[in-house]
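request received
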Amino acid sequence: MGYVLDRALATAVYLLIKLAKPLLIEGHAGVGKTEVAKVLAHLLGAELIRLQCYEGLDVSSAVYEWNYQKQLLAIKIQERADESVEAKVKHIFGPDFLLERPLLRSIRSTNASPVLLVDEIDRSDEAFEAFLLELLSDFQISVPEMGTLRATHRPYVVLTSNRTRELSDALKRRCLYHWIDYPSLEKETRIVHTRLPQIQGELSAQAVKWVQALRRMDLTKPPGVAETLDCVQALGALGKERLDAKAAEETLGCVSKSVEDIARIKSEGIEKILAQ
Amino acid sequence: MFEAAQIVNFCRFLRDHGFDAGVSETLDSLRAAPLVPGDSVKFALRAELCSCQAEWNRFDDLFEEFWTGNAGRKQQPRPQPRHQERSTWALIGPNGASPSRAEEETKPISGASLSERLRKADFSDVPQSDQEQLERLAERLMKRVSFRLSRRLQISETGARVDLRRTIRRSIARGGDPIELRYKGKKPQQARLIILLDVSGSMSLYSFFLLRFAHALQKNFKHAGTFVFSTNLVDITSVLRHEHSPAAMRMLSQKAIGWTGGTRIGASLREFNQHHARRTLTSDTLFMILSDGWDTGEPEVLAAELAAIKRRVKKLVWLNPLLALDDYQPLTRGMAAALPYVDVFAPAHSLDSLLDLEKHLTRRVLGKQDVR
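response:
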């Protein structure tokens, strides 16, 4: 599975299952917030339903949409049928014509609870957050044309946030909370070993130390664990055996994605940072 | 070790330390604790009772403090001394005191001409006797700004997107021919506003009114933030959200540190960039600085930080009360360093000049067609 879990997070996930409460995970970019949901789905053997949030996310892409083409065809087909307008309306606004989007799908699961991942909730707007809050309290969605649809199996909900904006208190109160910090040296080394066992230990240990040194530099975008893994993978692909200044410079694009930061790292001296 | 009563006490203890640990959180904690092994109870309570990184970071210490014995006597009340209102007003008010009634009554000036004059008057040389009048006028005019702005920001261009859902609904009665098209309007653009208000000594004659102005503006932007700075930066967004001005001002005075004294604009902006920029700035943000530009710090710092802000926002507005002076030249080192990054440089010394600023807040300016 390749996820290095500490006791605290394990406890939070356990409570998420036991208490059926959503879990809100915050942390810097690239520390493995999204992975938690993926691993959870895998462990439970459940379906993972993911909703990626963005500004302007609306009901038709998050909850449901009608299949218009199919509806138009159906209207044409029943044109000559001897039915009342009401009956026709009822037909074309039936379940056959409903396109389920992630949130609706998460409550329509028929055999087992799925895992619902609401990714980067901080990017959606407040209106959507309020809607989500309603969903999380009742696990039901009302479709005006059909009535209220209730969950038969409550989904396990994981929300992630990058803290680009403060979430509402109401939402935070509804959730369990977990903050994922950058991992310690040992933990990060273990993560790299678990995820990339084919890379030899010495090289990955050096890379981890390098990235950890960069994190202490107060960069505008400090590298996350994802960047460490990228860097180690890149070193492997380049056939490097150890991480020297040259190798570090060649793979700098893996750990830092901002011009200012790269300039700062270079001016500080890669050699010097590596020696730390 | 973890008895129910103790957990309840612990929740109360956290509440005393500013956590949002109410009844429902307490109940949830009581449900959660027995579910996990003893050495994980801490993690369970942490997941239940924290709701942001700051609380998360403080939790461990508080947990230790509570469970290692000396819990009983640690229940300190929140450190929120109520300052007397009077001293606050004195602190913020332009000249430190409100005019006496007698003094006011001796002025036989008709209302209309007085307000006409006051609107144009520089905040710094309004006589003591007219202060109250000016404040009332400010209140009224700011309300008007609020009202006009809120209309402006809500009108949306009607988009030409067909709303299929409603169109189809309409078409059923006509055998499925979409004769009547329904349209979807564009969602109103979400403008954001960030205000940084200089409250240093040199600005003290203006900051009171500018604060009112900031308050009026903030009400109209869905995403708005207001900060005051002199030698350091204080986020007063939540304070301004409270409707009643005097109460808000009182809380504000408790928050603002170094209300008067020197200014370090560059350092304050750096603080903003480090702690708040990521959360608050977007490409449709209007960034407004209200300051006279007297910076005791290095101008290079100011320039660098402004450049960083400029890259992230739609428009950078600098309002300078001194700009109204006839002989004013933006030659102070800070102001000179800042100007290359500023989109709009305008005065803010009187009510009229503030009202004039509305034009920088319209859709046209915030909209895409604004090229610069």
